[in-house]
Amino acid sequence: MKLEAQKKKQTHLKLEARPLQALSLSSSVSGRSARTGPEKAFEEALLDGLKMASGLDQAFHDKLVNPLQLVRALKALGTDVLTWTPETLFSFLDEKYSGWTKDQCVSAMKHFHETGTLKSDIPQLVREKIYAIRVISKTDLAQNDWNVFEKVGGALNDRTAKFGVVEPLSPAECARTIAVIESVRPDQYSDEVKIYVAACCHEAGLLTVKPVKWLSFCEPYLEEMNLNRVGERPGKDVLSKIALRYSALLQQQTSQENSSEDESVVSVQAAKLAAITLYSEDVLAGT
Questions:
Q1: In the chain, at which end, N or C, are there fewer CB atoms within 10 A of the end residue's CB?
Q2: What are phi and psi of 249, to 5 degrees?
Q3: CA separation (Å) from 2 to 9, 89, 142?
Q4: Contact in structure between 196 and 202 (CB atoms under 8 Å)
C-alpha cells in the first residue's frame, strides 16, 4: 500500500512538472486540475486536442466543407499559411492531416517542381476553396475584377473552375460569394463587379434585388438592364409588393418550393429573392 501511494505521488509530481504550456493546454488543464486532479485534467485536455485535430482533418478532406469553416481551420494552424506556396502548403497539410511521411512530402514537392503538377490527398475542390480564401484574404481582386469574382465564386459554391471559360454564377451563388467575402475581408466593389452581378440577376429574370442584403449594391445596374430589355422600369408599387412578400416569406422561413401556389409576378419574384437569401445566409449559419 505504501509503495502504491508513493508511486501515485511520484506520478502526480511528474505530471505537475510537465511543460503543459508548450502544448497550449495550460489554461484548460489548470482549471480542470483543481476539480479532478492533474492526471485526469491532462487526459481530458489531450482528448480535447484530439477532437480539435479530428475536426480540422474533416475540414481539409470534405469536398463540400463550408468555406468559413475552412477559414477557421486555416487560422487554427497558428501561422499565416496562406502566404506559403501551394506545394509547401499542401505538403504541410498532407503531413499533418493525411498521414503523409516526410519522404512522401519531399517526393511530392520534387514532383511539383519537375512537372508543375501538384500531388496531394487534399481534394481538388478543397484546394480551390483554399486558393479562393487566399485571394479574398490577401487581395481585393475579387472585389474589382469580374473574372476573379466569378472563379472565386465558383469555388465557394462547390464548383471546380474552368479557366479561360466564362461560367456565369447564379444570383444565389453571387449572394453566397459576397456573404463569404464580407465575412473574411469587407471592401468596396468596383462597377465592373456590380455590372457582372447585375447581369447574372438580369439573366435569371429578376426585376429587383434591392431587398437582398448581399445583392442590393447592383440594383441601379439591374434597373438599367431591365429598362433596355422591356423599355420601362417596374412600377414602384410592384417593387414595394415584392419587398413585402419577400419579408413575409423570410419570416416563415419559406423557400421558393414551399411558397404559395399563386403564380403572380409579385409572388414569383419574392419567392426567388427569398430562396437566394436563404441559400446565401446558410453559409453564415453553418459557422
A1: N
A2: -65, -40
A3: 11, 54, 70
A4: no
Distance CA 73, CA 168 (A): 29
Domain locations in the chain as residue ranges: 50-138, 139-279+281-285
For residue 232, what pLDDT band results from cuts at 50, 70 and 90? Answer: confident
Q: Where are the alpha helices (DSSP H) in 37-145?
A: 38-61, 67-75, 86-97, 102-115, 124-138, 141-144
CA distance 15 to 36: 13
Alpha-carbon distance values, 248 to 15, 241, 262, 267 (Å): 60, 11, 14, 11
Is the pLDDT assigned to residue 26 strictly greater than 70?
no
Residues 33-55 have pLDDT tens digits of: 444 555 555 454 444 444 444 46
How many other C-beta atoms can be found within 10 angstroms of the C-beta atom of residue 60? 24
